[in-house]
Structures
1.
Amino acid sequence: MNKRRVVILGSTGSIGTSALKVARDIPERMEVVGLAAHSSYKALAAQAMEFGVKQVCLFDSTHAAELRRLLPSDTRLLTGLDGLCELATMEAADMVLVSIIGTAGLKPTLEAIESGKDLAIASKEILVMAGEVVMSRAAAKGIQVLPVDSEHNAIFQCLQGHHGCPEEVSRLILTASGGPFRQWPKEKLADVTLEQALKHPTWQMGRKITIDSATLFNKGLEMIEARWLFGIPMERVDVIVHPQSIVHSLVEYRDGSMLAQLSSSDMCFPIQYAVTWPDRTPNSLQRLDLAKLASLHFEAPRWDDFPALGLARRAGLTGGTMPAMFNAANEVAVQAFIEGRIPFPGIWQTVEKVLSAASPRDYQGLLSVILEDDAWAREEAARVIGSR
Ligand code: MG
């Protein structure tokens, strides 16, 4: 049983701290060799000390001097995007866990692939914006891309033995909790407050992703991710609402059989599977008690009342830079909602307007084209919000 030497990009966020729990739980299988955080330097210092990590990166260098004083003198401190790239390609690592929010993870991810590291990807933006490039370069290098998001990790598990056989799969079915407004009438959605949107029924996560779960944009981004991760056409990526978050997703095969992956709602499950794949390793995580659970509930998503799903399918079917623009417009709109500048439905109304005005391009592997259209969509979203 080999031990994986893992670099964690985004170690102080919710995925990063769960990954460190996994490292504590199965130290015989996971060693942390590099850590990067955005700006939480005290937490980063504490993590580096606990795990004896000798290479760390603070993306925002504002508090680099303070961090330097907290670290042992033989610990190397890097900063900025160059620092992330250096960690992502470091000799001592064989896997990079990318859990950075936003586009900052894109360059380090591609460099990690070039240097032959396996990837565990938790950042949605990377696969949504550049899924085609990431998957084709990874395939060319013979590198495994292991999804960490609970839904994609579930599908990855259900596809074991059938990877690379897209013709056998009739549907990938992502489960969605439905968010806190699952049962709200459409009219009431206009009055949703920030506080209400930040209360997720089953998962504890960061602000942006919690709001994305409430609008179902999170599921929309996951539909696009799934399309690239598993090479399944967008038309065959489907969603079912399952408020308990016990079934993490399913695969329907062409013979009508469905396979599902179940576990309690703890990100340590998918993170551990990504790290130990293809093996299964004992751990201290909480087991499901199906008898106690008694029933599993499913319902159809409200496609019309939560337009994020339809917008995602449209962006995924269009392809090219459209998914990047879908993601960028949503980011700007979510920020505007957090700042109280637009109401809750203003998030999807903004994205809808941006997509309608967009001229998506085929980027042919060029990140610069993706980033240009991403920037255009951000400006256009800001303009749409300003003119409300
Ligand atoms: Mg998810």
2.
Amino acid sequence: MNVIFVGPPGAGKGTQATRLARCLGIPHVGSGDLLRAVRAQDTPLGHEAKEYMDTGRLVPDDLTIRIVEARLARPDAVNGVILDGFPRSLPQAERLDASLGRGKTTWPDAVVYIKASRDVVIERMAGRWICQQCGSVYHIPAVAPSAIGRCDVCGAPLVQRSDETPAIQAVRYDVYEHDTLPLIDYYQQRGVLVEIDGEQGVDAVTGDISAAIEEKRGARPVASGSGSQR
Ligand code: AP5
């Protein structure tokens, strides 16, 4: 099964994509996670990715598409993937159709649109804490760890992302409205869009996604949990 998660920054795409991937037994491929790994390298590509990500802009398509396609070519993606944050522009969607969707009558199986207002997502990004070591994601106070500042899963310190300043969050939201929002119509016209109210609590959102995916494919219910491990 191939599922794409779309929505504004901080809407909960990563949180929910992690849960659905675990439930369906297929990989969770987050373009932001892939690009952060590239950005961490002291290479020309890493420097290029950093320049865009640290200012809230989209990394150019040629670099992003190359990295995502390399990940999708790995053997574990053969039975499907949960794509989180990719595509996030019409050119990326068309490129994905031409590669992963080639020859398929139904592609993708579902596009989960997690809808949330600007105010809600700005608050969520401001409260997000991430484990430095295992990548588990928390929110204070909505998805709080048991011990302040420490990951429940591995005990490592929690940190905030470098693109979480109010100014960069505002740019990321504007970029979303300009470049990514057109994807909603694009996938709605294909009959694969599922709109989810992302302003509910985490487990309620998971429940709605689970029901929608079950309806599409007869998938198992999605298990709930505390911090979302990525
Ligand atoms: P990326 O890492 O993809 O960031 P994003 O799309 O902006 O999304 P986020 O990761 O910020 O949020 P999310 O929706 O996953 O929310 P989360 O589950 O963490 O991209 C970063 C950058 O990389 C981009 O700016 C761009 O530069 C580049 N990039 C990435 N993909 C690209 C592409 N395809 N093309 C070009 N450039 C690209 O939740 C947020 C917080 O809320 C967490 O603390 C969580 O615990 C909490 N939370 C989640 N759900 C709930 C809930 N229901 N109630 C309360 N709290 C909740």
